[in-house]
Amino acid sequence: MRKVNPVDIVQILTGVAVVVGIGLVVVELQQNREATQSQLSTESYQIWTQLKSASLGDNAPDVLAKACLSPQKLSGADYMILQNYYSVIINSIVRNKELSMGTFYDDRIWQDAAMGGFMEMFATTPGQGYWKTIAPRWVDPTVLEFGNVLLANMPPPNCGEDFKGWRNYVNTSIEDTN
User: Fold this and answer.
1) How many Å apart are CA 169 and CA 158, to the nearest integer?
2) pTM summary value
3) Dihedral (C-alpha) 29, 32, 34, 39: value to the nearest 10 degrees?
4) Of 6, 83, 89, 124, which cross-links 117 as Cys (Cβ 3.0–4.6 Å)?
5) What is the CA radius of gyration of the chain?
6) Residues whose CB falls within 8 Å of the CB of residue 66, separated by 6 or more in sequence, listed in order
7) How is the chain classified by DSSP, letter by letter?
8) With bands split at pLDDT 50, 70 and 90, how would you rate the model's confidence at 146?
């Protein structure tokens, strides 16, 4: 039987240490790459959302009210404002879904967060029209499917009646306090 030479043991341990070190460097580079990609993606979403939000202009509340109360009176410029408004909502939903991927969260997290945006969009005929005609061209398939299920289970848009009921409630509440 051959005697184990201490030099051989040191060489083997050194080789193992080098391989482990290279493996750790590869893991570190992968993590840095993923972090950089995430940061670039976040910055891109922020810039896009800021540009779309800035293009809403000062009369966005008027356009949203018109979309609710008298959509037949919407102008071409109004539709552009609505397109930007709805795309910001959808962009936020898609971003929440992407952020939840690869985490310990399940789909309910982004879906719960998405409900408010979808409900606001689907409350108007123009919002439903945007979702049915324009959104399928660019929306993530999972988000599209979730939104389609929500829309299929919603009653027809009735935000005008909701708006009037809300306004009447507020006016009644104000009168009760006087």
Assistant:
1) 17
2) 0.66
3) -160
4) 89
5) 27
6) 73, 74, 78
7) -PPPPHHHHHHHHHHHHHHHHHHHHHHHHHHHHHHHHHHHHHHHHHHHHHHHHHTT-TTHHHHHHHHHH-GGG--HHHHHHHHHHHHHHHHHHHHHHHHHTTSS--HHHHHHHHHHHHHHHHTSHHHHHHHHHTGGGTS-HHHHHHHHHHHHTSPSP-HHHHHHHHHHHHHHHHHHH-
8) very high
